[in-house]
Design a protein that fits this description.
This protein is mostly beta strands. 13% of the residues lie in helices and 42% in strands. The chain is built from eight helices and 36 strands. The strands form eight sheets. Strands 6-5-9-3-2-11-14-13 form an eight-stranded mixed beta sheet, with no helix packed on it. Strands 26-27-25-24-30-34-33-32 form an eight-stranded mixed beta sheet. Strand 13 and strand 14 (233-254) form a beta hairpin. The longest helix has 15 residues, at 328-342. Mean pLDDT is 90; it is low at 8-20.
Length: 670
């Protein structure tokens, strides 16, 4: 999925150079009436809310006052707004970083214009530069925001800005493919001095319209400071001439990422590239600049709340309310459930710092703060615990080859008790001890510890959810068919159920369930058990009865909650992997007495099929003996992730299941 090359002087001429015809001569402000008409484009259709007409980025370098370079990144975008759903594109957010020493990224040269076409005449409205405002996210992150004026359906918005940054370890990445809108032209250019060497990670499936590389030369003004013989610091401006590596990449008529079922984050598969500093050369020696994970995680380890989590002197942690059991595992569970039940998560950010004492006192904080407090409490009782940072599925994959903190967005706790590892998230109120949300199972994760640096892989293929449902139907004394249904949910289904029931109530749940039946039923003895016992499986149980009167009755032997109603894979082709949240083992058992006064006229046939050998199986085993009908239906998927080349067989597998589970028993009145 990740393809890497090195951008340096020695690799320049190994780059593919393609210069195509019909290049774009874009000029900011040069909007014509022709630009408003996108009907001729082959990739634009009536369902699109907006079209990105042009998008470009350019990164080059300038000398700074710290003996080195800044990168200067200029971004430009022109968008046709088709309807109100895309008005949000007129509000632009630009993230900026400042380190603990006060070295800040700077936003400049902001321009924004909205163009409207009325009766063939173009009017323009320029953005007031005073309308730019700041939103401080935390001590290291600020977002600059601005909104373009006079936006209405059919308009074109255009804006540009420049960021100057001293953080040359990474230069801005570029994504050619938008997740929602078609892009008619997307290009990225870099001009990198030969003193810097970057590795480039390419992701995606589409080819370049233009991929051009050439060598240049540039003169850089660098302010060099050094102590003189009198121990005074002097500064002098040096002009350094260096070769540059120039590159231009263009993609044209890029389709938006298609919304496909079972894909964790579409951005994982978008056409994009990222850059990471590999080495530097100061004229005398070459220095390897690829950071280690140990160096990068030290950023967190030195923060006060991380230090507090491992401190042996957290005297403010008093004896926890309730009984703390004797054994380490029992102690850990008591502490975990105490934090989970008494502390409220306010934010998922892993960058927002908070004093753990304040979190302890106010009983609220970010996911980071709550799980660090959990670690501090476990440590105070002599139980080994440490933080782990990860990227949730929605946030996208982390490339393990490049230690970039901004790729992570979540922190959990890893505890080792009696030689067994437990992963804990006390910020999620529905998880049991040792469980994580399926959203956390997104591949690479990193342990944060001052004494060691290590990694984990959290994979959906390692999760399995086992559901068992039973339905018993028999004739009662009133000429009705009486039934008892019970479902015992697996660990993951139980989590989902607890989350669902936190936003509804039992009456509404069973009301919706009753409506799923294709015939009238009377429900009684309804219950949902173990909702508050997080280490127990949730079970749903109810009794019901119904009556048959027709001469011929078509009856589906599978209860509505257990039927695969439709194939989740509707598209005939697929470009990206199928990423299910977990492996599945779902069993349904029916024991049914033939309704009084009826005979079985038709019965579905038994069937067994497998998926790609051992990837999955489906069994539908039914038999009719005398007065009884028995059915066992089982779906088992032994893996959660399927590559695109397996899509057709997976789609056909589920098509067979849907068709089979729709088959009905035909009862005929005697």
């Amino acid at each position: 999925m990740f393809k890497s090359i090195i951008i340096s002087a020695c690799s320049l001429f190994s780059c593919l150079t393609v210069l195509c015809q019909k290049d774009v001569d874009f000029k900011f402000g040069n909007v014509t009436a022709k630009d408003f008409d996108v009907s001729s484009s082959k990739i634009v259709d009536s369902s699109d809310d907006a079209v990105i007409l042009y998008e470009s980025g350019f990164t080059h370098f300038a000398g700074n006052n710290s003996n080195w370079f800044d990168y200067i990144y200029t971004y430009t975008r022109r968008v046709k707004i088709i309807n109100k759903k895309s008005f949000r594109l007129a509000t632009v957010a630009v993230p900026l970083y400042i380190n603990d020493d006060g070295d800040a990224e700077v936003l400049s040269n902001v321009k924004g214009v909205t163009y409207n076409l009325d009766n063939g005449v173009i009017s323009s409205a320029e953005m007031d530069k005073g309308s730019i405002f700041s939103d401080k996210q935390d001590e290291n992150h600020t977002i600059k925001k601005f909104t373009l004026p006079a936006v209405k359906e059919g308009c074109i918005i255009e804006y540009t800005y420049t960021i100057t940054s001293p953080y040359t370890y990474t230069i801005p990445s570029w994504q050619f493919q938008n997740e929602e809108y078609p892009v008619l032209w997307s290009e990225y250019k870099v001009a990198i001095p030969s003193t810097l060497t970057y590795s480039l990670t390419r992701q995606g499936y589409d080819s370049f319209f233009i991929n051009k590389a050439w060598e240049g030369k540039e003169k850089y003004a660098v302010n060099k400071t050094a102590p003189n013989e009198n121990t005074f610091t002097i500064s002098r401006e040096l002009f350094v001439e260096a070769n540059t590596i120039n590159h231009r990449w263009v993609e044209k008529d890029v389709q938006p990422l298609k919304a496909e079922s079972y894909i964790s984050s579409p951005g994982n598969y978008a056409d994009k590239m990222e850059f990471h500093l590999a080495s530097t050369y100061n004229g005398e020696e070459k220095s390897n600049e690829i950071k280690t994970w140990k160096e990068v995680t030290a950023h967190f380890s030195n923060k006060k709340d991380f230090i507090q989590a491992f401190s042996g002197d957290n005297s403010w942690i008093k004896d926890l309310p309730g009984s703390i059991s004797d054994g380490d595992l029992e102690k850990a569970k008591d502490i975990y459930y105490y934090v989970q039940d008494n502390y409220t998560s306010t934010d998922n950010s892993i960058n927002k710092y908070a004093d753990l004492y304040d979190v302890y006192r106010t009983k609220k904080g970010t996911v980071r703060s709550i799980n660090l407090l959990l670690i501090a409490m476990l440590q105070s009782k002599g139980i080994y615990a440490e933080p782990v940072m990860l990227s949730t599925k929605e946030n996208g994959f982390v490339n393990p080859n490049y230690p970039v903190l901004d790729k992570f967005n979540y922190i959990i706790c890893r505890s080792v008790i009696n030689g067994k590892v437990y992963l804990l998230d006390a910020a999620d109120p529905v998880l049991s001890f040792g469980q994580l949300s399926t959203d956390c199972y997104n591949g690479y994760a990193r342990i944060i510890n001052t004494n060691r640096s290590d990694s984990l892989y959290l994979l959906s293929d390692s999760l399995i959810n086992t559901d068992v449902s039973t339905l018993s139907l028999s004739n009662d004394d009133n000429g009705k068919i009486a039934g008892t249904y019970k479902q015992i949910m697996g660990k993951i289904s139980s989590i989902d159920m607890r989350g669902k029931m936190s936003t509804t109530n039992t009456d509404d749940y069973f009301k919706d369930l009753k409506n799923e039946y294709s015939f009238d039923i009377n429900m009684s003895n309804k219950s949902i058990e173990s909702l508050n016992e997080r280490e127990m499986p949730v079970s749903v149980q109810y009794n019901f009865d119904f009556k048959m009167n027709d001469d011929i009755v078509y009856f589906n032997p599978i209860a509505p909650p257990d039927i695969e109603k439709e194939n989740p894979f509707k598209a005939t082709q697929r470009s990206y992997p199928v990423e299910m949240p977990y492996c599945t083992d779902k069993t349904y058992v029916l024991n049914m007495q033939v309704p009084a006064g009826y005979i079985v006229d038709e019965l579905p046939k038994s069937a067994r099929i497998s998926l790609n050998g051992n990837d999955g199986t489906f069994q539908y085993l039914i038999q009719h003996n005398g007065d009884n009908i028995q059915l066992m239906c089982r779906l088992k998927l032994n893996k959660a992730t399927f590559e695109p080349e397996d899509y057709e067989t997976l789609r056909n597998f589920f098509a067979f299941i849907v068709e089979k589970e729709s088959e009905q028993i035909v009862f005929k009145k005697q």
